[in-house]
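1st attempt posting a full record on here, be nice pls
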Amino acid sequence: MPLLNPTRNPSCRVLRETDNPELFRETFPYSRISRVFFDGIFVDPRPAEPMFITDTTFRDGQQARPPYTARQILDIYDLLHELGGRSGLIRACEFFIYSDKDKKAVEACRDRAYSFPQVTPWIRADIEDLRLVRDMGFKEAGMLTSVSDYHIFYKLGKDRKKAFDSYLSMASKALEWGITPRCHFEDITRADVLGFCIPLAVKLMELSRQAGLPVKIRLCDTLGYGVPYPGASLPRSVPRLVRAFTDAAGVPGEWLEWHGHNDFHKVLVNASTAWQYGCSGVNGTLFGFGERTGNSPLEALVIEYISLTGQDDAANTRVITDIAQYFEKHLDYHIPDNYPFVGKDFNATSAGIHLDGMAKNEEIYNIFDTTAILGRSVPIIITDKSGKAGIAHWINQSLGLEGEAQVSKSNPAIGMIYERILKAYEVGRSTSISNKEMLSLAKRYVPELFPSELERIRSLAKRLSIQVITRLVGSLEVRGEGNDHYPCLTGFLKEYPIIQYINLTDREGKLLASVVNDRQYQDEYDSRLPLGYDCSSREWFVEPMKKGRLHVTDIYQSLFTRRLVVSVSAPVVDADDNITGIIGLDIKLEELLRAAEALEENEGNAE
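the predicted structure (as tokens):
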């Protein structure tokens, strides 16, 4: 069989101009399913060295869901570092940098000063965007570089020569400014690889040699047309695409990166194939989030990397479970029960793993030791054969109950759930009880195990109140009695109209200053809480004074406005960390809940 050796074909190193776009109509008939052709040319595997993962959860992944808050971005970035950043397996994270929120999230992540994942931006091939990259001090940036004639002719309204020159100009300017360009060859699997892509890559490598800086190339399978077959024709064959760039264009494998989409259910196998044929970097998103059908699931890439290399210590795989829990708890994202590695049923079986079966040997049905590798034990599938012990085990495991908090099989509520399940099977049920059904039964019969809506509101109010006062207390210094000494209080009240009342005392509890949000209550506050008033017996004063830390009260009705409020207070300290006073805020509960999303956004921005 002949082997592909594009280096013997010098014509593939020269731009092939055309008056009309090359749309490969035989391969992409549009009105029919796309075709895979084989031409008898094969390439042998040549695994990349090194192999690594890059992340685009905050760029491509964010195009498939409501935008993450800056706080959420920072939390997820920390989790990515814990998952594979310590070893450098997850080498980089990609970010938007256009909005103020984007920029603040980027700075918060950069302030972590992790070696990996590196924070890198994504921009359009536009000089103003590149200037923004330079001004923000980045040394690498991903640049949109569309390479198919579908994009060049129909989207950009250019011909090949104009697009070619434009891309080279942008890369040259980036190198001039000391920035490594990462050229995203968009729609590579519908492009004229030998007539446009390879000549462009050859010129980029020439620019790299002249500048003494890398020029990286991301191979973007925009519509998921890539196939893992080494004998398939270009432009669809992932093996031949990778080898064309490494062998014909001379792009080092470490400067190549694969970015796939899952339109044809091949996203993971294509990513793994790119590794096996010499492409070092594979780009993915957590749980495959991405526009349309999504990207390579990053957690799957981690497992795939370990399976290919045997490097078990390259990642802390238990963090995959932590990430899943974060997505469900903080992003209200429901992970399908059968989703690999993190779905509730992924390591269960409808054949019925019960307590007795697990005691015999869980290897019969489990793909690996999920307790050791993912930090999650084998779940119980509930049927009429599970018994009360199985039901209690399901509840304890699903709700994460430990020690004294666990429910016993002798609990009367467990008996009632068991009776309901038995009756269902007596009238003809033949399938197992789903997680959703079990959760509903548990909420009905053991409601005390679940937080009430009021408890959820209390928890949210506490967290947001702490966030607000933390911003204020750092700028305070006790200077004497009178509002004139503390203009920052009035300014802070205007910034946060959710606050009803702010007061500041000295360390003895004497009221030094106070400001009221609503003027209609000013006289009542002034008469009942005049400057000099002794607040030393109030809970909001006593607790932070005694413990030296923040204190949040329960929800209560304000004596002055009759509205529900939460009081939060904190010590004010001097340069030697001695308490000099107590600052207190009364926060209107209703307005606090309405502003929750914006406050959580600011929480991330403040990091």
